[in-house]
Design goal:
31% helix; 2 strands; globular; alpha+beta; two-stranded parallel ribbon; 65 residues; single chain; 2 helices
């Protein structure tokens, strides 16, 4: 069941919609630094301003460290 979290769970998976921008990249890093296991999701919605859609998942993978 989906829910809105009141606090960040430690050592648990937490989903995040990931655009690849500064805000979501910082959020993923913050989640990891505070003990959560972020699961990033992105969708190709055909945004005309997105030069390389395939770069978004690659960027998310670099934030695993």
């Amino acid at each position: 069941m989906a829910k809105i979290l009141d606090e960040l769970p430690k050592a648990e998976k937490v989903g995040i919609a990931f655009s690849g921008g500064l805000d979501t990249s910082a959020a993923v890093r913050w989640m990891r630094a505070n003990g959560a296991i972020p699961y990033a999701y992105t969708a190709n919605l055909g945004q005309p301003d997105e030069a390389d859609y395939e770069d978004i998942p690659r960027k998310a993978l670099t934030l695993r460290r």
